[in-house]
């Protein structure tokens, strides 16, 4: 079974891949494709053909040699693709790169092959749904925004190059907005609106549920995940974040519930803000 996994940037999609890779008949690849090679292909036919070919190639490789291409570190898909400490510029940098990964599994022909891309697959979700089972991971929008402010990535500046490449409206809205935080709020709403309008609620996994269940929330993707009991700790109140920034972002989110409606409410923003303030 070939499965699409997408989600909000920094929502726990890589953690989900790491957990799914603990299951006996599941392999989850972390952003293995080069999105730049998909831009410019005829859409949807050539685009879908290229994705289908990628699945077929990786599936054959896994059945033949146990290996597949994935972003990874030291030969494995980590639970977090960014460094835990800021670099000299004050931002955390990526610690993963594309490589051939040996998953060390005895796989049956019908094993679940999950390919994860947050921005690329969100932008093309409506088309992907015509062929694949699709799932998304979301996270408390305050925690997501705070994480974006701590990493070295385009979303830190309120841009999504490969989301914009496949969504002209998103590109236009971001180009017209000069305020960085306003751009990030546009992006957040873009993510949430895609999942609320295109996916059944059961196919959207909240990071908070993923953590609280020790990974068992992933059973919607692979029933074997019902056996997981990983000791996971929420990073929603990371010490990386400045109290003034937390309050400022929370206030902006509380001003517009339509950004995250259907998945989170005002109380989720307020309680996380309070929890962070108490911890700080």
Describe the 3D structure:
It is built from eleven helices and seven strands. The termini are far apart. The chain has 280 residues and is of the alpha/beta class. α5 packs across α10 (243-254) and α10 (243-254) packs antiparallel against α11 (266-279).
Which structural class should the secondary elements be placed in?
alpha/beta
Largest sheet: 5 strands, parallel
Segments where pLDDT lies below 50 for 5+ residues? none
- Strands, count: 7
Instruction: Identify the overall geometry.
Output: globular
Note the beta-strand portion.
Answer: 5-15%
- What integer value in Å does the Rg equal? 18 Å
In short:
40% of the residues lie in helices and 13% in strands. It has 280 residues and is an alpha/beta fold.
Key structural traits:
alpha/beta, Rossmann fold, 5-stranded parallel β-sheet, two-stranded antiparallel ribbon, 7 strands, 40% helix, globular
Helix and strand layout, with pairings?
Layout: E1 2-7, H1 13-20, E2 26-30, H2 45-65, E3 67-72, E4 97-102, E5 112-116, H3 118-123, H4 125-128, E6 133-138, H5 141-148, H6 161-164, H7 168-176, H8 180-198, E7 204-206, H9 207-212, H10 243-254, H11 266-279
Helix pairs in contact: 5-10, 10-11
